[in-house]
Amino acid sequence: MKVAFVLLSSLRLGAGFPGMMGVGRNSSPKPISKRTEPSVRQPLFLSKRPNTGITNPHPTFNATAQFVDVGPHSGHEFQAPGPNDRRGPCPGLNAAANHGFIPHNGILTAADGECLESTTAGVYSLTIVALKGLDEAFNVGPTFSVGASAVGVVYAGDFLTGTWSIGGKYPGSVPLLTDPPGLLGTHSKYEADGSPTRGDAYLNGGNVDVLDMNYFAQLYNLGTEYTHDIVAAHAEYCQAYSKANNPYFFLGPIGAFLSPGTNGLIINMMSNHSADIPGGTLTRDVLKSFYSVTGEPGSFVYKPGYERIPDNWYKRPDSFGLEDIGSDAQMNNLMYPGQISLGGNTGKVNTFTGVDPGNLTGGVFNAANLFQGNNLACFVLQATQQAVPGQFSGLLGNIGDLVKWLADILGPITKELGCPQLDVFRKEMFAPFPGAESYLH
Ligand SMILES: *[C@@H]1O[C@H](CO)[C@@H](O)[C@H](O)[C@H]1NC(C)=O
Ligand SMILES: *[C@@H]1O[C@H](CO)[C@@H](O)[C@H](O)[C@H]1NC(C)=O
Ligand SMILES: *[C@@H]1O[C@H](CO)[C@@H](O)[C@H](O)[C@H]1NC(C)=O
């Protein structure tokens, strides 16, 4: 989802919305208070790419098409979340819900969406929400919205009804089974370590929904206007910080993609556009609006769940897909070799050990081709598909139905992206990482 990922990106399990139903708190170890500031690498070069990303280096501007009206009588006025509304770790999803582009209660259902058509792959399955509202608000394309929703339904929702929650858990369709957890309950499966503003679960007593003011201030202070090169530096900082502080730091297939990818989403999704600068600019005020932060460094105040689309704001000109997130992340990896890495710390800080993608996938993807074309987006979707059976065995009797459902949804997307066939996925290679515990089971 173009959107869903910004949205999804900064996923963290968390405890952040006192009084808000469904914001799950896991019983967890105490937050780790001793922190070490990491040393951070300099980039090999700067990309100087516009805020529309490397796949749209020469953007155009059309005020009528790009204006997102959230003013009086627009039908998309800001409305604060109530006690029964779910809000979670993704600022874009929270903002879309607060403005009624997706259901205000934060639970997405098939009935709220509309099937988007793909020119090459035909009509996507009716059971998935294609999130037309996210397209209206952010210009998110189908490979992003459908891909991210499918993964959302699988990990955070209920595939029998095609629903999922952008925040905490909600009652499922089969009362005897565990309630669908929502994004807040998907740590290391969907929500991952190393995100731009949310602290790692282990460092925050299991909460993945904590806006880490250190991270936010770090990003804020990198500039007065933000670019891809700035958030690439921020992704580098967050990874270095996690490696130096979190013995359980873990990047699985989605996490490895999201750590640089969600940083890129900040730029691709939140920038404001104009005739003068069609590539877009992201100012401090706009950043604070999307993150529900007010005040100045040293006295920032974060109001959980109040993320908002600014007045007089113009979205990106073109539809943004999962493959575009992949392309920007690949650029980060050229600037900072190894910024896209699978693996984790092995129980102590500063023990980061990588997993070879070639060995993991029986040679279909390897360290060289993973960063070519659409392969990174393919890898994320296909690795998810391959990992699902083991992750859900014992939980559901009808695992076969879930696997088929997912294949029906993702099949057209992977076909459209031209993904190679993936039959081998040695998930057990993640076993040495203690942070992979909830990913593996
Ligand atoms: C700008 O967008 C509007 C609304 O989508 C469209 O009707 C119009 O033709 C576009 N103008 C140009 C010059 O493309
Ligand atoms: C977006 O850009 C336009 C054109 O420069 C400007 O008028 C408007 O105030 C900007 N919006 C925000 C929220 O900064
Ligand atoms: C792949 O991993 C397996 C199991 O860890 C190992 O035995 C094998 O040597 C590895 N192969 C390559 C090509 O790295």
What do these coordinates show?
This protein is mainly alpha-helical and 441 residues long. It has one domain (22-440): Orthogonal Bundle (Chloroperoxidase). Helices cover 34% and strands 7% of the residues. It has 14 helices and 14 strands. The protein has a three-stranded antiparallel sheet with strand order 2-6-5. Strands 8-13-14 form a three-stranded antiparallel sheet. A hairpin with a 4-residue loop joins strand 5 and strand 6. Helix 5 (142-156) runs antiparallel to helix 13 (399-416) and helix 8 (253-270) crosses helix 10. The chain starts with a helix and ends with a helix. One 2-acetamido-2-deoxy-beta-D-glucopyranose binds at residues 62, 64-65.
Q: Ions, cofactors, ligands: which are bound?
A: 2-acetamido-2-deoxy-beta-D-glucopyranose
End-to-end C-alpha gap: 26 Å
Instruction: State the helix count.
Output: 14
Q: Strand portion, in percent?
A: 5-15%
Top CATH class: Mainly Alpha
Family: Belongs to the chloroperoxidase family.
Organism: Didymosphaeria variabile
Domain Heme haloperoxidase family profile: 74-327
Keywords: Heme, Iron, Metal-binding, Oxidoreductase, Peroxidase, Signal
